[in-house]
């Protein structure tokens, strides 16, 4: 990598980081939250269980995720886990949304009807 490219990559990473922090503070819009809650319950639930207690994929309950670094869980949601059935979701959610989902999972995921409020 030449020097200019390195600088560009670093600047890009910096900007992406800032975007995540800003978007995270506000969080997704309420309507989008409801969509994300429905998606997690239905699509993620098809592997992780409708109550997120585990199935093909492991449980995604607060006690199961306790002590696991959020950043790596967010990376798992965005990129999947190569060599396992866990797919990446970056075509459907952005980084801030994945971050929001992980935060909700760590607290105890809201039911579909309450998704818009939390
Ligand atoms: C096709 C099945 C499948 C779907 C759909 C799926 N997952 Fe997974 N997921 C898995 C498997 C299997 C693993 C365990 C991978 C491993 O062995 O490390 C996993 C791992 C994870 C982990 C890491 C858990 C831990 O304790 O380290 C998180 C977080 C996660 N999935 C979130 C999600 C979310 C959020 C969605 C929906 C956006 C989703 N998954 C959809 C199969 C799936």
In short:
This protein has 118 residues and is mostly helical.
Key terms for this structure?
mainly alpha; binds heme C; Cytochrome Bc1 Complex, Chain D, domain 2; 5 helices; globular; 118 residues
Oligomer: single chain
Could you say what the CATH architecture is?
Answer: Orthogonal Bundle
Please give the domain count. 1
The kinds of small molecule bound in this structure are: heme C
Query: Helix proportion of residues, in percent?
Result: 55-70%
Overall pLDDT level: 85
Estimate the global geometry from the Cα principal axes: globular
Describe the protein in words.
By secondary structure, the chain is mainly alpha-helical. 59% of the residues lie in helices and 0% in strands. The chain contains 5 helices and no strands. Helix 1 crosses helix 5 and helix 4 (70-79) packs across helix 5. It is globular, with a radius of gyration of 16 Å. Bound molecules: heme C. Heme C binds at residues 40, 43-44, 46-48, 56-58, 60, 64-65, 68, 73, 76-77, 81, 84-87, 89, 101.
Please outline the helices and strands.
Blueprint: H1 3-26, H2 30-48, H3 62-65, H4 70-79, H5 95-107
The structure holds heme C (HEC).
